[in-house]
Amino acid sequence: MLTVKNIHQYYGGSHILRDVSFEATLGKVTVLLGRNGVGKTTLLKSLMGLVPIKSGSIELEGKPIHKATPYDRARAGIGFVPQGREIFARLTVEENLRMGLAYKSGSTPIPSELFDLFPVLKQMINRRGGDLSGGQQQQLAIARALAPKPKLLILDEPTEGIQPSIIKDIGRVIRMLADRGDMAIVLCEQYYDFAQELADDYLVMERGEVIARGLGKDMEAQGVRQLVAI
Ligand SMILES: Nc1ncnc2c1ncn2[C@@H]1O[C@H](COP(=O)(O)OP(=O)(O)OP(=O)(O)O)[C@@H](O)[C@H]1O
Ligand SMILES: [Mg+2]
């Protein structure tokens, strides 16, 4: 679904991403691990087109997208859940979900399935985003990204600052979405146990480089826990 080849990215003179290559496959969860500041968010933003890459290529279903705008990448089927959620605090839950459909035609309904995945959003449909708990906001951000039915879902640290019961719910939803087989999922995490439970494939980054990769089931044996321990 997604093929990233040899990408390099700079913020001014700082070389942040160094020759990063990986693939994300339909039906699988690809987990990107790494400590604070190694470039995880920068990598995910460059997939979405929110930061430009200097060289390398990004293909979605075999088509190059690295020159496309974020808007066009969303239209091409990428859903993005940013770090810190970035929901619209003054808009209602329903309005936030409609924002996820902004590039679809005006009559596209909010898929009812989103409320099966996250029943709390149905109860809160008329509440303002800013009145939700952190965990509920995270569920809203994921639902907003899912609303246009993406083929590739990108999540940036979805467990950050969220209570354990909601982390479990979010993990279940991510697994279920992958198991349906019609979506590729790329997830970056610092919470090792959550990452290990979900990973079909993993990558570990350090200072902008991929320093380890493999199958999720081998993470423990390959000592990934130690690589990302703080
Ligand atoms: N807009 C920016 N301008 C300049 N430097 C930046 C910018 N955003 C991030 N950086 C730097 O790029 C590096 C990678 O940051 P990035 O946010 O990608 O890391 P991260 O792995 O997502 O970290 P965290 O786990 O804390 O979210 C850091 O050294 C950071 O200071
Ligand atoms: Mg980050």
From TrEMBL:
InterPro entries attached to this UniProt entry: AAA+_ATPase, ABC_transporter-like_ATP-bd, ABC_transptr_urea_ATP-bd_UrtE, BCAA_Transport_ATP-bd_LivF, P-loop_NTPase
Keyword Membrane in annotation: yes
Any one GO molecular-function label of the UniProt entry: branched-chain amino acid transmembrane transporter activity
Keyword flag Glycoprotein: no
Highest taxon, organism lineage: Bacteria
UniProt domain ABC transporter: residue ranges: 2-230
One Gene Ontology biological process: L-amino acid transport
Keywords (A to Z) from UniProt: Amino-acid transport, ATP-binding, Cell membrane, Membrane, Nucleotide-binding, Transport
Membership in a protein family: Belongs to the ABC transporter superfamily.
NCBIfam families: urea_trans_UrtE
Protein name: Urea ABC transporter, ATP-binding protein UrtE
Organism name: Variovorax paradoxus (strain S110)
